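Writing this down once: the sequence line spells out the residues, with the fold written below as integer tokens. I am pasting one below:
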Amino acid sequence: MHWVNVNFNNFQLEVRESPLPVILHLWAEGCGPCDTIAQILEEIAVEMKGRIKVAKLDLGRNRELAAQFGMHFIPIVAFFKGGIVNDFFVGAPQKSAIVKWVHKTLLTSS
């Protein structure tokens, strides 16, 4: 595993205070597209190690935390930099689209 599971107890430290930009994946049990995204993000976490952090938030167990950011749907992937959401997408695009989004978001949030 090359990501960190986050919840109410560690969200502040792992996402808000992270020195690296964080790609946060909101997912839930039984969500096929979420599983697809998880596999892609695992690959991206390995490929971009040291440049980004990938975190996963189980929406089923952390609805109140997700609601703080207006995130109520799955799968959703949000890009946090400096503790705030810089960009996000909903759905399960192909890996190439996700990689392009990550690179674009890294460049525009610098």
Notes: The radius of gyration is 12 Å. The chain is about 35% helix and 25% strand. The chain has a mean pLDDT of 91. The CA atoms of residues 12 and 83 lie 8 Å apart.
